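Today's session is about reading a structure prediction critically. Students often jump straight to the picture, but the first step is always the sequence itself: look for stretches that repeat, for charged clusters, for runs of hydrophobic residues. Only then move on to the predicted structure, which in these notes is written as discrete structure tokens rather than atom positions. Here is the chain we will use throughout the hour.
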Amino acid sequence: MQLHPKFRLNGTAYSHDSLLSVAKKWQNSSNNEQQELGLFLKTWLIDSDTIIVHTSGSTGAPKPLEVSKKAMRASAEQTAAFFNLLPGDTALLCLPIQYIAGKMMLVRAMVIGLDIDLIPPKTLLDLKDKSYDFAALIPLQASASINLLKNLKTILIGGAPIPGALRKALAKKQLHCIETYGMTETLTHVATRPVTYPPVPFLAMPGIVVDVDSDNCLILTVPYISETAICTNDVVELIDEKSFRLLGRRDLVINSGGKKIFPERLEEKLADFLDFPFFFTGIPDATLGEKLVFVIAGDSKEMQNALKIATEVLGTDKHHIPKEVVCIEAFVHTKSGKLDRVATLRKVMSEL
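Below is the predicted structure for this chain, in token form.
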């Protein structure tokens, strides 16, 4: 794969051969992130049409996917056109290289000709007083580094839902923050919305068409990625062929007494009122099939107050009032920083 002549990595210009040579050295580094960087760059630069990437594992074990380098390049070009990125623009890579979001930041830099700096993928960003034209963050980073975001011109936020309090804070600061919707199968973002409070619907990027199946799960037509439609597990409210509201994942829906409950919607409504981690889940119940359970991370003394607040905020629909509150010391997260609901639920069940 050819490198754009304007491409820079941590301030250094590379030819194809010089980058391949240093990538092989990085692959043998004792630093895990540098190993991943070297492995990906070597795989990208060698003469092959496809590359193996992995899903994030937020709803199950990470899965390997074979994807086309041509599709990754096309996705990078789509991003450049949409966000008006130009050769020589500066970019920040602060996401783990082993996941698609980090890989695609590198691909964009190599294809578009960005001057990209790679820093450790920590929650609190170490910008060293530098400013950048383009960056992608997860909500945890945006929250921890909110006072540094003025140094970033265009900020993509994705990988996990944006909590209500953070959404409100970002909207108040009037930063150029863009919430993205996408997945490994779509090579990251295919729909965007400005970070506003309250949130507005997602709008598909140019050339992408959205539809739903019989279960109201989102179907994406992404011509530069796949000749066939991409079927998701995300249940949406379809507004038109370009826009939608995200309701939740089909595999997380709780069926309680015949009533379908989307835990993500409840979490979004409650996010403004609680300052500790929580989520909703369903556990087997002899009468209801599944009962709605409110899981909080923290001290057990918070349980009664949490249930009181949840009842007040969600009580307009009796089905949304938790039947039980469970308190555990800490939640389980994936390596990419997302809540691992499956592993955390196993932990919850073991403590019931």
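Discussion point for the tutorial: Residues 217 and 235 are 4 Å apart (CA to CA).
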